[in-house]
Amino acid sequence: MSPTLALVGATGAVGTVMIDIINGRESVPWGEIRLIASPRSAGKKITVRGAELTVVALSPEAFDGVDIAMFDVPDEVSAEWAPIAAARGAVAVDNSGAFRMDPEVPLVVPEVNADRISVRPKGIIANPNCTTLSMMAALGALHREFELRELVVASYQAASGGGQSAIDRLYGELEALAGKEVGVRAGDVREVLEAAGLPVSDSPFPAPLALNVVPWAGSLKDEGWSSEELKVRNESRKILGIPDLKVSATCVRVPVVTTHSLAVHATFAREVTVEQAHKVFAEQPTIVLVDDPSAARFPTPADVVGEDPTYVGRVRQALDFPNTLDFFVCGDNLRKGAALNTYEIAEELANRL
Ligand code: 2RA
């Protein structure tokens, strides 16, 4: 019998992208698709693959008969409800941060470590954070060939990583600053925003984002690191299966609506040339290589948003570091960075049920 798929958080930002992805698939393996959300959204009608579905309220019974339940909800909701779904017999595929570093929960990027899907003692599989995910297809492919040893990363993260309120804030700031001569004196951007009723104290970002870059994403952790930087380190180690991988990350928010970018400096056990790296990338079905700087061809978030693959360019052999490549990746943080990877895990599971 065809499996039943549930989507928990069907009416949220990532849930909406998820429905878009399901609608865009040529075919799906599901018998029934069940939409689940908070009681506030229950009763809402959403069309999925031509059928009008009614959103049902989150409850233990909502998981009865469900084979795979995808969770696109905040950490605390997943922490409470993914185990309930699992206890009712579903495999929970969770896009929150609640279980990512739990040793009994696999953290999966299908093109890198699909094999981990089958060992899931808690009945839960975790989806990585979008920042880590945006570079994983590229790093996984290179690691298979050249054995990754060290990773230094700077992220350029889009506003939508912070949710709808962060997107609204960026648009609001852009509107307030449009046509103003700013960026010529320290503090002038803040002053215009304040005068427009948009003080930084009301923002999800700790500084103006429009016409600026903000070297901060996530919450403060020990010794000045941000939660986002530690996620890059810990999740990369777990996904790639290299517990002692040396990682250093600086996470930065940029005035882009959607699509995270990363500048990656990766050192391998063996020498790797640009030609070899290009060949590895070109062979990956989920990577698009755009790398011809002489023709101004490289990935940018504005050209990648809405796309499923990871885009890779600016591949260079580091001049002063042996066995090291520098490259730039862009990935839509709401698609591969969130909904798409979760859905790909669910599809992979459906093949194995
Ligand atoms: C961000 N990576 O970009 C986070 C979202 N999960 O804020």
UniProtKB/TrEMBL annotation:
<dbReference type="GO" id="GO:0004073">
    <property type="term" value="F:aspartate-semialdehyde dehydrogenase activity"/>
</dbReference>
<dbReference type="InterPro" id="IPR005986">
    <property type="entry name" value="Asp_semialdehyde_DH_beta"/>
</dbReference>
<keyword id="KW-0560">Oxidoreductase</keyword>
<dbReference type="Pfam" id="PF01118">
    <property type="entry name" value="Semialdhyde_dh"/>
</dbReference>
<dbReference type="GO" id="GO:0071266">
    <property type="term" value="P:'de novo' L-methionine biosynthetic process"/>
</dbReference>
<dbReference type="GO" id="GO:0051287">
    <property type="term" value="F:NAD binding"/>
</dbReference>
<feature type="binding site">
    <location>
        <position position="100"/>
    </location>
    <ligand>
        <name>phosphate</name>
    </ligand>
</feature>
<feature type="active site" description="Acyl-thioester intermediate">
    <location>
        <position position="130"/>
    </location>
</feature>
<feature type="binding site">
    <location>
        <position position="157"/>
    </location>
    <ligand>
        <name>substrate</name>
    </ligand>
</feature>
<feature type="binding site">
    <location>
        <position position="333"/>
    </location>
    <ligand>
        <name>NADP(+)</name>
    </ligand>
</feature>
<dbReference type="GO" id="GO:0009089">
    <property type="term" value="P:lysine biosynthetic process via diaminopimelate"/>
</dbReference>
<comment type="similarity">
    <text>Belongs to the aspartate-semialdehyde dehydrogenase family.</text>
</comment>
<dbReference type="GO" id="GO:0009088">
    <property type="term" value="P:threonine biosynthetic process"/>
</dbReference>
<dbReference type="Pfam" id="PF02774">
    <property type="entry name" value="Semialdhyde_dhC"/>
</dbReference>
<dbReference type="GO" id="GO:0009097">
    <property type="term" value="P:isoleucine biosynthetic process"/>
</dbReference>
<keyword id="KW-0220">Diaminopimelate biosynthesis</keyword>
<keyword id="KW-0521">NADP</keyword>
<comment type="function">
    <text>Catalyzes the NADPH-dependent formation of L-aspartate-semialdehyde (L-ASA) by the reductive dephosphorylation of L-aspartyl-4-phosphate.</text>
</comment>
<keyword id="KW-0028">Amino-acid biosynthesis</keyword>
<keyword id="KW-0486">Methionine biosynthesis</keyword>
<dbReference type="GO" id="GO:0050661">
    <property type="term" value="F:NADP binding"/>
</dbReference>
<protein>
    <recommendedName>
        <fullName>Aspartate-semialdehyde dehydrogenase</fullName>
        <ecNumber>1.2.1.11</ecNumber>
    </recommendedName>
</protein>
<feature type="domain" description="Semialdehyde dehydrogenase NAD-binding">
    <location>
        <begin position="4"/>
        <end position="120"/>
    </location>
</feature>
<comment type="pathway">
    <text>Amino-acid biosynthesis; L-threonine biosynthesis; L-threonine from L-aspartate: step 2/5.</text>
</comment>
<dbReference type="GO" id="GO:0046983">
    <property type="term" value="F:protein dimerization activity"/>
</dbReference>
<keyword id="KW-0791">Threonine biosynthesis</keyword>
<dbReference type="GO" id="GO:0019877">
    <property type="term" value="P:diaminopimelate biosynthetic process"/>
</dbReference>
<feature type="binding site">
    <location>
        <begin position="11"/>
        <end position="14"/>
    </location>
    <ligand>
        <name>NADP(+)</name>
    </ligand>
</feature>
<dbReference type="InterPro" id="IPR012080">
    <property type="entry name" value="Asp_semialdehyde_DH"/>
</dbReference>
<feature type="active site" description="Proton acceptor">
    <location>
        <position position="260"/>
    </location>
</feature>
<feature type="binding site">
    <location>
        <begin position="160"/>
        <end position="161"/>
    </location>
    <ligand>
        <name>NADP(+)</name>
    </ligand>
</feature>
<comment type="subunit">
    <text>Homodimer.</text>
</comment>
<feature type="binding site">
    <location>
        <begin position="40"/>
        <end position="41"/>
    </location>
    <ligand>
        <name>NADP(+)</name>
    </ligand>
</feature>
<dbReference type="InterPro" id="IPR036291">
    <property type="entry name" value="NAD(P)-bd_dom_sf"/>
</dbReference>
<feature type="binding site">
    <location>
        <position position="253"/>
    </location>
    <ligand>
        <name>substrate</name>
    </ligand>
</feature>
<dbReference type="InterPro" id="IPR000534">
    <property type="entry name" value="Semialdehyde_DH_NAD-bd"/>
</dbReference>
<comment type="pathway">
    <text>Amino-acid biosynthesis; L-lysine biosynthesis via DAP pathway; (S)-tetrahydrodipicolinate from L-aspartate: step 2/4.</text>
</comment>
<keyword id="KW-0457">Lysine biosynthesis</keyword>
<dbReference type="InterPro" id="IPR012280">
    <property type="entry name" value="Semialdhyde_DH_dimer_dom"/>
</dbReference>
